[in-house]
Specification:
Blueprint: H1 7-19, H2 22-29, H3 33-47, E1 52-55, E2 58-61, H4 63-90, E3 94-99, H5 101-108, H6 112-118, E4 123-128, E5 142-146, E6 155-168, H7 170-179, H8 183-189, E7 192-195, H9 202-208, E8 219-222, H10 225-233, E9 238-242, H11 243-252, E10 256-257, E11 264-274, H12 282-308, E12 313-314, H13 318-323
Parallel strand pairs: 3-4, 3-5, 7-8, 7-9, 11-12
Antiparallel strand pairs: 1-2, 5-11, 6-9, 6-10, 6-11
């Protein structure tokens, strides 16, 4: 009596065929390479055919292997879709959102109570992480991502622009001005606080204003904008940051524009990102509508605040440089 191939063997085979290497398949499956090799050997013995051509360390599919890979990929795709549907029904009253950490803490978090009060019957799950969602493998409704351009293959809705400007504490600004009246000299003498994941970096900002940067300039670097903003408030140095994340501090006076006459550079920065089919969910639509309302109010307040601080908004060709592949 013939035996059907084991499910484990098919899972291991599909992973090896997709990656082309046993080691990578083992890493994905969280097993040892020898366990993967054993499963492939058993599957080939059971089917009575070779599924891979082995040339030193290279693996390539045989004709029989190609046929099995096409069938297994299709079958696993159907299973994954079914799992997503089941999960979606199970969590039909829950919205799952991934958000970059600084935006989650400084912008989204303080506003969530308004959505919850408006829609108390819905459940929210907010994951603050810098890692983008793999929508093929994870049950997530949408990401709020940061960056200069949309992501191919996904629906990308702009939420907010950044208005990026050098900021510091009032005391630090006065200290810089006491040392020199020249803006370029003030920048050169300052300690630069860097948000290393920000779209607009000091080197680009200085180039736009025809200042040459130097590796010898004192600097302190953070991988979270929230940390960089806090250190600027503490008087550590001069931060090139987003009014999206620092608006409350600008309004309260804890942070001030270091050089208001140079203006704030406008950049498209925050996006709702998801597969287009996710947008049909009622809760997705409600949250997106609320989020965009909050974004409009925030933008209006930002522009009013910049105007009161005598800061102009700059829209220029700097985006061409930022969008160039690096």
């Amino acid at each position: 009596m013939s035996r059907d191939p084991s499910l484990n063997g098919m899972i291991y085979f599909e992973a090896v065929a997709r990656h082309g290497k046993i080691a990578r398949a083992a890493e994905e499956l969280n097993v040892s390479p020898s366990a993967v090799s054993q499963q492939i050997k058993l599957l080939e013995e059971m089917l009575g055919v070779a599924l891979f051509k082995r040339d030193k360390r290279q693996l390539s599919l045989t004709l029989e292997g190609e046929r099995l890979f096409m069938a297994s990929s299709s079958a696993f795709g159907i299973l994954k879709n079914a799992r997503r549907v089941i999960s979606r029904k199970r969590d039909s009253h829950q919205l799952i959102v991934k958000v970059i950490p600084s935006f989650a803490v400084r912008w989204l978090g303080p506003r969530l109570h308004a959505f919850i009060e408006r829609h108390p019957e819905w459940d929210l799950r907010i994951d603050a992480t810098p890692d983008p969602t793999n929508f093929e493998r994870e049950v997530v409704d949408f990401d709020i991502r940061y960056g200069p351009s949309p992501w191919p293959g996904l629906s990308c809705t702009p939420i907010l622009h950044d208005f990026v400007i050098p900021l510091c504490s009032p005391e630090y600004r006065d200290q810089m001005r006491d040392q020199s009246e020249n803006i370029q000299e003030q920048v050169y003498n300052a300690r630069l606080v860097n948000s290393v994941k920000a779209t607009l970096q000091w080197e680009t900002w200085m180039g736009r204003h025809r200042m040459s940067s130097s590796a010898n300039m004192p600097a302190i670097r953070f991988d979270r904008s929230s940390m960089a903003i806090q250190q600027a408030m503490n008087g550590v140095g001069l931060v090139l940051e987003s009014t999206t994340l620092a608006l409350d501090e600008l309004i309260s006076g804890k942070l001030v524009p270091a050089f208001p006459e140079l203006g704030a550079i406008k950049l498209p920065s925050y996006w709702m990102v998801s597969p287009s089919q996710h947008q049909s969910r009622k809760l997705y639509q409600l949250f997106a509508e609320w989020l965009l309302e909050e974004a409009v109010s925030h933008t209006q307040l930002t522009l009013e605040t910049l105007q009161s601080l005598e800061v102009t908004v700059i829209e220029d060709q700097i985006m061409d440089e930022l969008l160039d592949p690096r």
